[in-house]
Backbone:
């Protein structure tokens, strides 16, 4: 068992785009010491290990006995097998989104974490976006939501379709604001540059009447990461990429009803660093993470319903 006065021994599995960023954040934290990295391409792991002064492996299982906590940033199809090995051994896990490929895998990881008493956090970085955090201070119950997450094409992430790659970020945000059961899901999608769906639109209806229209694409010419909320009290627009919030509310001013801009402060901080720090805080205090495995499952369940509806429209089996 780790001595509470000692730094938390951390490792990173999957030394690609995201895994490298996780290492950068851990290096800044005096509460942590990086002890090892793992990647199936051992040369890549060794290059990074030289930079951070730790050991490198091409088999993640060799890290298990060395670490108290680990970030996992491997392809989605490998999430279950890699995370299960660490959770079963009592190692706390920060797992990049989505939680898994299937609900059965998600349930297996959640059960394992609960049985071993480990911290299990899902890496939905937009939950830590300062504009989303500021929105929580001013928004009431939304009635209509419109989200666009559009990116140019990169081969990274194409092991899954655009719903699990990009759209799931917005699904997680929506579910964090709308606490009502789903009523109906409609979806369409097409493949353009990969073997998976690259552009998709979903219309989600909740039992309280709230409707969310969500579009995701990874074949556009420029980046757009915007989500807009409409409700009785006003209109709120978040630019996730720029970390900006425009908030307008219905107010009475000298007997006249009008729409006025809310003066909402949006803090300036790095969302990934905040995410990693929150994970380490949970590890140190043994308190539930900001985004739990069960919340990760909810987003996956909705994503899979969208994929099922989309495939039905394309004449494919789910």
Residues:
């Amino acid at each position: 068992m780790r001595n509470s006065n000692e730094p938390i021994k951390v490792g990173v599995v999957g030394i690609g785009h995201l895994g490298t960023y996780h290492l950068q954040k851990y290096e800044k934290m005096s509460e942590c010491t990086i002890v090892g990295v793992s990647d199936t391409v051992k040369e890549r792991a060794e290059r990074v290990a030289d930079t951070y002064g730790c050991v490198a492996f091409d088999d993640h299982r060799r890290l298990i006995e060395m670490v108290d906590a680990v970030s996992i940033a491997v392809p989605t199809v490998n999430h279950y097998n890699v995370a299960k090995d660490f959770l079963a051994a009592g190692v706390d896990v920060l797992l990049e989104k989505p939680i898994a490929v299937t609900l059965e895998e998600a349930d297996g990881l959640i059960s394992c974490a609960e049985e071993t008493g480990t911290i299990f956090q899902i890496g939905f970085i937009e939950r830590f976006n300062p504009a989303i955090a500021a929105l929580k201070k001013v928004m009431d119950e939304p009635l209509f939501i419109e989200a666009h997450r559009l990116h140019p094409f990169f081969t990274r992430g194409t092991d899954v379709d655009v719903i699990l790659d990009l759209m799931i970020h917005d699904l997680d945000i929506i579910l964090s604001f709308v606490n009502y059961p789903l009523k109906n899901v409609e979806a369409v999608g097409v493949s353009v540059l990969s073997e998976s769906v690259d552009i998709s639109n979903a219309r989600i209806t909740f039992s309280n009447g709230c409707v969310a229209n969500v579009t995701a694409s990874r074949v556009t010419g420029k980046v757009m990461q915007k989500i807009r909320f409409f409700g009785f009290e006003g209109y709120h627009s978040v630019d996730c990429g720029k970390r900006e919030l425009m908030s307008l509310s219905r107010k009475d001013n000298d007997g006249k009803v009008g729409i006025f801009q809310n003066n909402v402060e949006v803090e300036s901080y790095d969302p990934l660093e905040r995410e990693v720090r929150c994970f380490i805080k949970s590890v140190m205090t043994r308190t539930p993470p900001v985004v739990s495995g069960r919340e990760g499952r909810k987003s996956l369940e909705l994503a899979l319903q969208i994929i099922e509806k989309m495939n039905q429209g394309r004449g494919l089996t789910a």
